[in-house]
Amino acid sequence: SKLSASSKLAQPKQPVGGAYGVFITKHRERFTKACQGLRSSFISKLAGEEWAKLTKSQRQPYEKEYQSKKTKFDKEMKAYLDNGGVKTPGRYAQKAAAKRQQMLDMEAREAKIDKKLRHVEKAKVKRERTSKTFGGKLSSSGGGGGGGRSW
C-alpha cells in the first residue's frame, strides 16, 4: 500500500552548494590538511580562493556532477511524494517558522499588556474626574456623606 511504502522511505536530501559544494566535498580532506591547526573558517577561505581561480572549463565537471545529483534528487523526491510522503521543511525554513512564531507570541503578549495598561489608565482618569467633581476627595468627610462638601 502507499502508506506502508512511504513509511519505509526517507525524504531524500537535496544537494546543496551547487557546483561549489561538489568541489568542496571532493577536496575537503586536502583543505583540512592544509589548514590543520587553524580555525575552520580558513578551510572555507582556502576553498573559495581555489574555486575562484578555476576557469569555466575546469568548473565544468563539478557543474555536471551537481546537475546529475539534482536530477537524481528531483526523481527521488517525486517518487517519495507519489508514494504518499510529505515534504518537510528544511532546517532553515523550520528556524524561520519558529522565529516567526516567537515574534507573533511576543506581539500577542505585548498587546495583552497594552490592553491592561489602557484599562488601568482609563480607571485612573475616571478616579481623577471623580476626585475633581467632589472637591478633591473621593470619600465623604465627616459623617454626613456629602462627598466632601459640608452642608
Automatic annotation (TrEMBL):
DNA-binding region of this protein: 13-81
Bias-annotated ranges (Gly residues): 141-151
Entry keyword ATP-binding: no
Cellular component terms (Gene Ontology): nucleus
Record field: compositional bias (Basic and acidic residues): 122-131
Keywords of this entry: DNA-binding, Nucleus
Pfam families, A to Z: HMG_box (PF00505)
UniProt region (Disordered), positions on chain: 122-151
GO MF terms held by the record: DNA binding
Domain of life, per lineage: Eukaryota
InterPro entries, sorted: ChromReg_NeuronalGeneExpr, HMG_box_dom, HMG_box_dom_sf
One record GO biological process: regulation of gene expression
Stretches assigned to the HMG box domain: 13-81
Keyword DNA-binding: yes
PANTHER family listed in its UniProt record: HIGH MOBILITY GROUP PROTEIN 2 (PTHR46040:SF3)
Record-given protein name: HMG box domain-containing protein
Organism of origin: Alexandrium andersonii
